[in-house]
Amino acid sequence: MARVIATINLKGGVGKTTTTAALGEFMAAEFGQRVLLVDLDPQTNLTTMMIGEERWKELNELDRTLAALFRGAIESDTASFDIEKALQYDVSPVRSVRGVDLLASSLDLIEIQEGLSHRQYADPGSHRPIEILTSAIEPIADRYDYILLDCPPNLGMLTLNGLRSADGYLIPTIPDILSTYGIPQLQKRIQEFANRTDHPLREIGLVITKYRSASNLHRSIIEQLQRDDRIADVVPAWVPEANQIAASAEFVPYGTLKRKYGNTGQFDALRILTETILMNAQVYL
Ligand SMILES: Nc1ncnc2c1ncn2[C@@H]1O[C@H](COP(=O)(O)OP(=O)(O)O)[C@@H](O)[C@H]1O
Ligand SMILES: [Mg+2]
Fold it and tell me: Quick check: helix, strand or coil at residue 110?
């Protein structure tokens, strides 16, 4: 059975999507894992990073994104979503990466998310609106070693669907004052949700992103985070801030991961990050 990991932070722009994409690609190419990426964010960034905007538009017109799943659930029309058709195989734009599949997001999820909330308010005791994703991926989970869920920066119904499906979660953060503010509250909310739904959800760790080695502030914030006993673990492989990592968001063909992310520290940092998370996941999940 696949291990399911959600990437979550209530802040946008902290590297959630970039981390999810890189983890998926490195897990597959460097560690031989079969990976499914699930893009739960209506901003569709992970989707367009993996398949580009044109293919996303085609999928959206054919109704083969997660919008079809959640819309079908609201309208009680479960037949409308065919996961076999929605699954996109071998999606990474990196030629040397094999074995990363995708369930695409859609901009239409912005409205659909509201419909899901209405259903939840109408029947607050029901777990069904937060179990839509879990039910959908259950039949295919065996095909993968890891399922990575990229969540939107809120605790709305899409994120709750992600957390309900997840065995563990990662919190990517930039090591600065504003980005790290509120992390203990987020962890508390996630734990409360796990208790309420009677579903164990392990914190795999905090992932330091956009790290600037020349910044004293970054270093002292990381030290503070490491000392903070409310935080389970700061993953000891920090993703450097690098132009090439920012540029990796562009959907263009790349030969190798070194080409995509850069080989002046970035490739090694992402590889060690992935290796550490795989080890933690095997211990915790
Ligand atoms: N390590 C990094 N170095 C430089 N830029 C980065 C890095 N990680 C992410 N970015 C850029 O920062 C922006 C936000 O990253 P993204 O992964 O989309 O964050 P989130 O999903 O949390 O909103 C994007 O433009 C992305 O390309
Ligand atoms: Mg994102």
Answer: helix
Residue 206 to residue 174: CA distance in whole angstroms:
10
220 C-beta neighbours (distance < 10 Å), count: 11
* Cα distances (angstroms) measured from residue 181 to each of 11, 130, 192: 10, 27, 19
Mutate to test the pocket of ligand 1, among 18, 41, 207 (most ligand atoms within 8 A of CB): 18
pLDDT at 67 over 70: yes
Q: What's the pLDDT score for residue 80?
A: 74
Question: Collapsing DSSP states into helix, strand and coil, what is residue 107?
Answer: coil
Residue 243 alpha carbon, nearest atom of ligand 1:
4
Residue 16, ligand 1, Cβ within 6 A: yes
Quick check: CB of 12 below 6 Å from ligand 1?
yes
Q: Which tens digit of pLDDT belongs to each residue from 214-240?
A: 999 999 999 999 999 888 789 999 999
Quick one: pLDDT at residue 78?
Answer: 64
d(CA 42, CA 39): 8
CATH fold group of domain 3-284:
Rossmann fold (3.40.50)
User: Ligand 1 pocket, 265 CB below 6 A?
Assistant: no
